[in-house]
Amino acid sequence: MVEKIVLPPQEGKPSDVEEIKIESNYLRGSLVESMADETSAGISDWDNRLMKFHGSYLQDDRDQRLERERKKLEPAYQFMVRVRMPGGVSTPQQWLKLDEISEKYGNKTIKLTTRQTIQFHGILKWNMKKQMQELNSVLFDTYAACGDVNRNVMSNSNPHQSQLHQETFELAAKISEHLLPRSNAYYEIWLDKEKVVDTQEEQEPIYGELYLPRKFKIGIAVPPTNDVDVFSQDIGLIAVVENDELIGFNVAIGGGMGMTHGDTATYPQLGRLIGYVPKDDIVNVCEKIMTVQRDYGNRSVRKYARFKYTVDRLGLDNVKKEIEKRLGYEFEEVRPYSFDHTGDRYGWVEGENGKYHFTLFIQNGRIKDIEGYPLKTALREIALIHKGEFRMTGNQNMIIANVAPRAKKKIEELIEKYNLTDGKNYSALRRNSMACVALPTCGLAMAESERYLPSLITKLETILEENGLQEQDITIRMTGCPNGCARAAMGEIGFIGKGPGKYNMYLGASHEGSRLNKIYKENIGEEEILASLQPIFERYAKERLDGEYFGDFVTRVGIVEAVTDGRDFHNKVTV
Amino acid sequence: MKLEVNNSPFNEQQVTQLNELIRSLTTQQKIWLTGYLSATSLEINVGTVEPNQSSVAVVPAQAPAAVQAKAKDITVLFASQTGTAQGLAKKYGEQLKELGFEVNVSSMSDFKTNNLKKLDHLLVIASTHGEGEPPDNAISFYNFLQGKRAPKLDHVNYSVLSLGDSSYEFFCQTGKDFDAQLEKLGANRIVDRVDCDLDFDEQATAWFESVKGKLQEGAVEQTLSEKEAASTVLAIPATEYSRNNPFHAEVLEKINLNGEGSNKETIHLELSLEESGLTYEPGDSLAILPTNNENLVNSLIQALSFDANKSVTVGENVVSLQEALTNVLDITTLSKPVLEKISEFTANNELQELLQNRDELKQYIYGRDLLDVVEKFGPFTWDEQSFVTTLRKLPSRQYSISSSQAAYPEEVHVTIGAVRYEVDGRQRLGVCSTEIADRIEVGDKVRVYVQQSPNFKLPSDETPIIMIGPGTGIAPFRSFIQEREERGAQGKSWLFFGDQHFVTDFLYQTEWQRWLKDGVLTKLNVAFSRDQEEKVYVQHKIEQHAQEVYEWLQQGAVVYVCGDKDHMAKDVHETLINVIAKQGNKSKEEAEEYLTELKAQKRYQRDVY
User: Fold this and answer.
1) Which residues form the Nitrite/sulphite reductase 4Fe-4S domain (chain A) (predicted)?
2) Are residues A405 and A432 in the same domain?
């Protein structure tokens, strides 16, 4: 019998979501009834909050809202479904199923997320259960892909280091499994498993009935590649390797991207290192860090609930001590490490294990067939003959991984047949771009992102070419709202949507993901974006130091201040 | 009809002046004038006015002598599905009463068969339903007359007016059957039966004039007092809109209710009734007078190698061929009678052969139009005039009204499914539905009149109702629920709706959701056939809720079915029988009887097409 989890008392009235969680009987709520109601394709707000814990939430096609209202039709409700895919690994068989589900139930596209998984859009209510069961048939689930729990665990996908990859991937899966909610709700509702009658505390020995105050994210990076943006995570684990062997991790805590426009008490923050732990205890370490957030995170105001605010409020040292108390031992000194970039390395590489890997550039992670570029079909055909695996990267790209030397030719033929791109035909800026989904399906979006960034890049490319910068790697990231799905605050150039066609423009994050950017212009449209960047690119082309990245340049020459602590992200109010 | 010296009692000058005047009159002015002249002429000099046989006015054909005798007993029985026959029966009944007759107007279902022996004069006004079947409210009377228990009727004088649609194979069959059976039972036909097509006004009026003439023959004639004459004028309301006198209603709103990506196109049309005085009840239909598609008219004229501007006489009017084919004549519906007329103008054997083969003819007619015939069965010997003479008049299209006047006093709403399909590689367009969908915009005017549906009516406010209306069949139920909401009716209500896709085809979805939330609608079940592999239709939903459906029936619920006749209504009917049999522990026959009894009690009402 596990002890009941009693949270320390907190000031302030618990938020409405806390009430929903406590009333939900461990994530059940009235989801079964809501899903069975045939008069609406939607579900109640209340149930939608719970739905997130099941890896999905209700959206609607915002492009159609007004027209449908006129037609006396409810909004075009549909579910976004996100798969739990620790480390972003999918077998070819699993991929074929994902492809099939997107065709059969979804909007026929697959979106690679910025957290190494995939999501479907456009799934209708009455197809949800079938879709969940089909996912389950290939051993995928969507449990805890959203909601106030630990989310998909990210892991380095660098194809050079194949042995390390295998090990970190397995650890990512272990952490994910360990921190998965234990309530049987998911299996009852979606997979027709029998309702388990037992003491509820036994169901959630780690979370308790209130789960976490807010979402929680963990990522594992293997230097020198920081493709998981390790400092943007609630827990960032930096692999420490000795003699080609993984021995442990430097642990950073309290990173996170989201903020709220107009509230400077909210800000993106970088994870801060608290020490080193050997690899054997890493799952336990993650659990203990998470329980500190469970107990001390703000449960009254959700926008202040992320772990980063808990750390900043209590103080990094105090939080570290509390974690050590729960672990029963102290962290060791941080071991030396160094990152050189956050991006992916495209094209074919040979891994240490003698197998080959092809990193495919996928614009904004959207996999679909378009005229002249049937990407989705191509991947399906590759999956039919591929014996290795597919790896999703944290940059919304995909690696066709572990191709045996003898199998390489056939895969190559398909790559050529479909003209699949390693990104070489694109500018370096485009290869280093990320955008969240935003309109039309995301309910939070204030401005376009995925549908807009490609055309903005086209215009920027002209300026870059004029200055000979087309092969310069510059990270550019855009989100439609300040919640940070595409980690815009860590782009050398970042855009955060303010309103239709209007963005805040940020500059100066580091290329390897250790520094935030800083606001340069507020609430500007395309014309001003281009006009502002043109002279900066010109100056960069002329004045940069040898090998100096754009983000480093703009902070060195004082175009923006360097931000190494999220509490300095916003401009100081000058009185 | 155009006045000429040889068809009227007027001289050359009078004819010219009258024609000039008549041309300048609006329809309402004409009606007013008709009544005015009838009344004032009598006032001035009763009995000296020349009888005018062709007049449609309600003046007795013969100047009455002041004779007082026992009035004739006249029974007017109607067999009505949509209410047209009922409307005529009531109208003629009123007019006969005003002439002093004892008149009893009744639905066949309400007529006690043992009163047959007491009948004196019998007028039957019967419409035909579906494939030559009698309307619901005539079935038992029809069966009785055909059966062994039918009495001898040689004491009865009768005449039959039948209503139908000549595009159906068994045109006016019910009327024909009544006529033949009454004769067989020994009754005496006083006026030959008249079979009316969709544009029944003129033929029906002619039949009634003849009947009236016969009834007034002999001893029993009455004088119209001046007062009665005056009331006759008033009895023709200025607002009696009809096919020949439609109201021009302005389009206030037009919405395609189907969402992006739907296979369907369902138009929600809101029309203004301001200053029309038109009234309707939930369940009634709105008749819309369409015009033919310009492209089709042009293609047809071209295929015929005719001159579009050539003048032709259609009925009483001389118009251009283009005008006749656009506004007056039916060029889309094929029927055996039309093809027979056409066959007189061609030596093409194929058409003759087709006319001999019933099944092939039926198959050929389905979905085809006049252009197909012209292209396939030439060469023809006709000219513009003889061509138009083969065609019947363009009928109005009837749509179930989807609004309640209690909710929208000055408006009427209809719900129209646009009909488009392809045959022989050419796209075919529903005449009225695509005119509304493609060519009518907000601010335009549409020619309409109200068609009452006495057999599709809400029960008392407390009575539970079950409404089954997939597709555009949902229209009257929107009207029902609007009405019940306005009245604050407490009776339970249950809607079964279905269509192809939930996301795009849930007609009036947000309104139903609101009514459900507010409790105006008690239950709502929907079936979308193409949202999953297996097809799900409304009858499956009824079956799923069999127990509760039967409970509602036992509580006195009225069941309404509106929509597709050939498939849906049949399937729903079968399902209801199954539900009643299973839930009520009855045999199939008993369940059928149960349903027949519901029908007799007006608790199973259908508006199917």
Assistant:
1) 174-328
2) no
State the Cα–Cα distance between residues A204 and A182, nearest whole angstrom. Answer: 5
B525 CA to chain A: closest CA distance, Å?
A: 7
pTM, full prediction: 0.80
Complex confidence, ipTM: 0.85
Question: How high is the pLDDT of residue B47?
Answer: 41
**CA atoms of B494 and B481, how far apart (whole Å):** 10
Query: Are A254 and A278 members of one domain?
Result: yes
Residue B266 lies in a domain: yes
- Over residues B87-112, the mean pLDDT reads 88
**Is the distance from CB of B250 to CB of B276 less than 8 angstroms?**
no
Q: What is the pLDDT of residues B455-499, one digit of tens each?
A: 999 999 999 999 999 999 999 999 999 999 999 999 999 999 999
Element (H, E) at A309: helix A307-314
Is residue B34's pLDDT more than 90? no
CA distances from A264 to A75, A254, A303, A568, B257 (A): 34, 17, 11, 10, 46
DSSP type of residue A516? B
Residues A321 and A375 in one domain: no
Which residues in B lie closer than 8 A to residue A76 (C-beta atoms)? Answer: 259, 503
Instruction: Find where tokens 């030397």 sit.
Output: A405
Q: What percent of chain A has pLDDT over 90?
A: 90
To test the contact with chain A by mutation, choose from B499, B503, B506, B508 the residue with the greatest count of A C-beta atoms within 10 A, namely B503
Beta strands in B136-284 (DSSP E): 157-163, 188-189, 194-196, 247-256, 266-272
Domain boundary among A341, A361, A396: A341
Query: Does residue A367 contact residue A375 with C-beta atoms inside 8 Å?
Result: yes
CA dihedral defined by B241, B244, B248, B249, rounded to 10 degrees? 50
Q: Tens of pLDDT along A185-203? A: 999 999 998 765 555 555 7
The count of structural domains within chain A is 3
B60: nearest Cα among B214, B190, B189: B214
The alpha-carbon gap from A131 to the nearest alpha carbon of chain B, in Å, equals 13
**Segments forming the whole domain that contains residue B261:** 247-290+396-451
Instruction: List the beta strands (DSSP E) in B453-514.
Output: 465-468, 493-499
Contact A234, A293 (CB under 8 A): yes
- In this structure, the number of other CB atoms found within 10 A of the CB of residue B393 comes to 16
> Out of A60-69, B4-13, B241-250, B598-607, which region has the weakest mean confidence (pLDDT)?
B4-13
Determine, for residues A72 and B526 on separate chains, whether the beta-carbon distance falls below 8 Å. Answer: no
| pLDDT over 80 at B377, yes or no | yes
Say if residue B79 is in the same domain as residue B213: yes
Task: Mark whether A315 and A189 lie in a shared domain.
Answer: yes
User: What pLDDT, in 10s, does the model give residues B418-455?
Assistant: 999 999 999 999 999 999 999 999 999 999 999 999 89
What is the count of structural domains for chain B?
Answer: 5
CA distance linking residue A252 with residue A276, whole number of Å: 9
Query: What three-state secondary structure class fits B393?
Result: strand
Task: Tell me whether residue A485 is one of the annotated catalytic residues.
Answer: yes
Q: Which of A64, A71, A124 sits opposite B255 (nearest CB)?
A: A71
Asked if B280 and B403 sit in the same domain, the reply is yes
Instruction: Name the E strands within B121-170.
Output: 121-127, 157-163
Question: What average pLDDT does the segment A490-513 reach?
Answer: 96
8-state DSSP, A237: E
Q: Last residue of a domain, which of A341, A375, A404? A: A341
Whether A52 sits among the annotated catalytic residues: the reply is no
CATH number, domain of A552, equals 3.30.413.10
A442 annotated active-site: yes
Report yes or no on B47 lying in a domain: no
Asked if the Cβ–Cβ distance from A74 to B510 is below 8 Å, we say yes
Does residue A68 belong to the interface with chain B, where contact is any CB pair within 8 Å?
yes
Contact check, Cβ <8 Å, A41/B510: no
Residue A258: domain span: 1-12+160-341
